[in-house]
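#struct-help
A.M.: can someone run this one for me? Single chain, 275 residues.
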Amino acid sequence: MNSRYMTNKIILFFIVGTMALIALFPFYWMIVSSFRTNPEIFSTKLNLIPKSFIFKNYIDLFKTTNFSRWILNSIIVSVATTALGLFFSTFAGYAFAKYNFFAKNILFVIVFLMMAVPRFVTIIPIFKLMANLGLINTYWALILPFAINPFAVFLMRQYIKNIPDDLLDSARIDGCNELQIVIRIIMPIIKPSLGAAGIFILMMSWNDYLFPLILMTSKDMMLFPVGLASLKTLYVVEYGMIMAGSFLSTLPLIIAFLLLQKQFIAGLTEGAIKA
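D.P.: on it. Structure tokens below:
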């Protein structure tokens, strides 16, 4: 029995390890390529470990481009979108979970179906709306349209629905209003759900390319996905600089996930499956 158990464990470990290597290899190749020149990147010889590390790509990235401004723009937009997304989604989820109002179920079904709508379908309406409001080429053009996320609303609703009503009634008896109930009682309880939704919204905003391309018209307002794409011209493609920029741009997401990984995993495994 023990021998069979160990054999199954070794096989499982081998399969998972192989899948992990396959998934991580492109990331490793990106890091290695960021320290190589273009001829070395396109060399026919497969060198998994570079003979020498060249920092020229990183130096040129900051000297010849506006990469630091691109990253700053992405941080401002992503952090603001995530903060507003969590704030409004929590209150919307609380309303759907604990209040009864006209067409509640129909509205929730609409929110649920919105998760299936491709984002690019909304480009023209959002562009016209932002243009009418005079917000084109501003941070608000990328923040306001995504200040509430359907998936986050769904996740919050599923999680808050399982909080006992008696707990909320006790808070009301103690003199708490609805805003205080959400901030002081609901939010501390649903931290795993907040972490999962926060990572999801942050990733969508941080990696977005199409909307920043359409809604930002000046070079100073570019976000890093658009900025890195601009390094690819008709005649010259700075692959080394693109790899360096791609690697640096992934670090904030990695750091955010490491800080919130417990909440992220708990939120997906607990909150999303509750009915």
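A.M.: thanks! Residues 271-275 have pLDDT under 50 and may be disordered.
D.P.: also worth noting: The longest helix spans residues 239-271.
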